[in-house]
Predict the structure.
Amino acid sequence: MKIPVIRKILEKNEERATELRERFDKNNTLVLNLISSPGAGKTTLLVRTLSALKDQFKMGVIEGDIQTTADAERIAQTGVQTVQINTEGACHLDSNMIYAATQKMDLGGLDILFVENVGNLVCPAEFKVGEDFKIALLSIPEGDDKPEKYPLLFSEAKVLLLNKIDLLPYLDFDVEKVKRVVKTLNKDIEIFMVSAKTGQGFDEWLTWLKNRVLEKKQGK
């Protein structure tokens, strides 16, 4: 007997993600799916980014965590509208979760929507959430072997943010190796070296964001 194999979960997720993307495109909202391991610095990076751009753009954040609202509370202190998703054990956000979260947001005139995914280098890379781009965040203390171990994220990301570069003098981390491996996986990826704690390298990252918002407004 022939048994049909259907990737039901991913197929259903992609259907909803396509619906979300069409909705975001109609609003000219740039949507960025921020993915990293736990502790890489996503929330600190977001807080600094939001604080720097909040007078220029209307922004929102969907915050994903397995439990607690601690990170969402930090983000909300910037004055940016924030919605928390607690997955209660799931290792990633999916498009149905994002759809439900957007029902609680004012998307009108929103320039940038950041999705801070659950801390994980594997599952979040497999599930689209209607984003324009995936943004990979890799921190120096994690080690320089992560792109080789978890290639999917780095193959699909538009940007790699190498975070916590203020710790480079104290750790054995080969920046050139990471750049070489990542560029082999994804020749078009852009790599920015930043410190979310000190602000080092943030000008290039913020400039990239501003240019992408402009392109989105122009329908590119």
